[in-house]
Write a structure and sequence with these properties.
FAD/NAD(P)-binding domain, 9-stranded mixed beta sheet, 8-stranded mixed beta sheet
Length: 445
């Protein structure tokens, strides 16, 4: 269900050369990093210029390069520097919105196609890992817990609905009396075990994709922040400080880092911040109690908590959000109470890393894909479901550019609800709504 989150600022660590380095996280500390790529220089031309070196951009570039297109990828920092390199690593099935909601909004036929695409997205991630021999700690199964008694009936109904209406038999429910078989965590009332889900090391996956893109013949430029995109009748001119790229098509894959680069789509998304910590390595007995199935885990709160174990038995735990451009003074202190509310047994466990950052949500939590004037394609608003969704979005855009694609048309045809107030005034309404639901998390409903 969750992928989250990329750091713009880091308050628990220092970084000597932030422009050319990764923000401190357990993922960066445990990865074999991509050899630094040069900045874009001079006048360049290509079939497709991809802006953003995360899952969506790299997946798009890889599929385009394999289709014979000339591709230039421009990344403002390092490949995987943003959310693709520092999220929760969950590869969930379905869409971020549940099937009941999708049926209500779009009808059962469209909801069924969206469910299919969600399953294919998980399969795509798995296939890319296998085909490109990416060592990224791929694991199976997600467990989603009811954090309140009032959520139990909803989760039971969801399981029944998926099994009967969608023929999905990889999902089962676990009653409260048996939850100790799934975790030693406290405060849960029911568990949904999804054996079709996956989880991984997000930065290793992203770097593996980048290496595949380069091997396929595309050009990847780092530290090449795009300053302007000028859309012409049949092409676009993309400008950085040191380069000008003439491209037949442009793909915007910036997500929470879009900023004011391309105003026509800015109001479709809202950037928010979320935070993750990594404990010291746990002893084998503790790790086995916390997560005996070595699954990814999450809960049903609106401000969701999500966690899993790393290969070296660290607990990677994400939780807590902020809705301004300010981060907590100490991310570890901010997240620790949320972790201990579930695992009080870890009260004396050291937190070795704390990082946080920015993702983009949409109003209905469905991804925002589209094309502007036939030249600028975009994918954004993955709403915490980005490992599979962004990777699939890149493939769909590549197919749409190459020869047209029905699935791209399906997603892009879903109406995106803009946040009211435009880029400058949209945040106050979001903050009010988010704080309301956060209060419901604390008080019950």
């Amino acid at each position: 269900m969750v992928w989250l989150f990329a750091a713009i600022k880091r308050h628990n660590c220092t970084m000597s050369n932030p422009k050319h380095s990764y923000p401190d996280s357990w993922y960066a500390a445990s990865s074999r990093l991509l050899t630094a790529q040069s900045s874009a220089l001079g006048d360049l031309s290509c079939d497709v210029c991809v802006v953003g070196g995360g899952y969506a951009g790299l997946s798009c570039a890889l599929h385009l390069a394999k289709a014979g297109k000339s591709v230039v990828v421009l990344e403002a920092e390092r490949v995987g520097w943003g959310a693709s390199g520092r999220n929760g690593g969950h590869v969930g099935t379905g869409q971020r919105a549940d099937q009941h909601s999708l049926e209500k909004w779009y009808g059962k036929a469209t909801a069924r196609e969206l469910w299919r695409l969600g399953l294919e997205a998980v399969q795509l991630v798995t296939e890319l890992i296998t085909e490109n021999e990416i060592d990224c700690e791929l694991g199976k199964t997600n467990i989603h817990f009811a954090a309140k008694k009032s959520h139990v009936s909803e989760l039971r109904d969801e399981i029944e609905h998926l099994r009967k209406q969608y023929d999905y038999d990889l999902i089962t429910g676990v009653e409260s009396s048996s939850l100790e078989e799934l975790t030693s965590g406290v405060g849960f009332h029911y568990g949904v075990v999804d054996h079709g889900a996956r989880h991984l090391h997000p930065l290793k996956f992203c770097i593996g994709l980048a290496e595949a893109v380069i091997a396929a013949g595309a050009s990847v430029f780092e530290t090449s922040r795009v300053k302007d995109i000028a859309v012409r009748r049949d092409h676009a001119v993309v400008s950085t400080d040191k380069a000008t790229i003439r491209a037949q098509k442009v793909v915007l894959a910036c997500n929470g880092y879009l900023g004011d680069l391309f105003p026509p789509i800015a109001s479709n998304i809202m950037p928010i911040n979320n935070f993750i910590v990594a404990t010291e390595p746990l002893d084998e007995a503790t790790a086995s109690r916390i997560n005996p199935l070595n699954a990814s885990l999450s809960d049903s709160l609106f401000v969701i908590n999500y966690w899993k174990l790393s290969e070296d038995r660290r607990l990677i735990f994400g939780g807590g959000e902020t809705y301004s451009d300010k981060f907590p003074e100490s991310i570890t202190d901010f997240v620790r109470p949320k972790l201990l509310a579930i695992y009080p047994e870890l009260a004396d466990t050291r937190l070795d890393f704390g990082w946080g950052g920015t993702l983009a949500i949409t109003r209905n939590r469905m991804p925002d894909l589209g094309v502007h004037k036939g030249v600028v394609y975009y994918a954004q608003g993955f709403s915490g479901h980005g490992v599979p969704t962004a990777t699939m979005a890149g493939k769909l855009i590549a197919a749409a550019i190459d020869c047209g694609n029905d699935d791209f048309d399906l997603i892009s045809g879903l109406k995106s609800l803009k946040f009211p107030g435009g880029p400058l005034l949209r945040r106050p309404s979001l903050v009010a709504g988010m704080l309301f639901y956060s209060l419901r998390d604390r008080l019950g409903r």
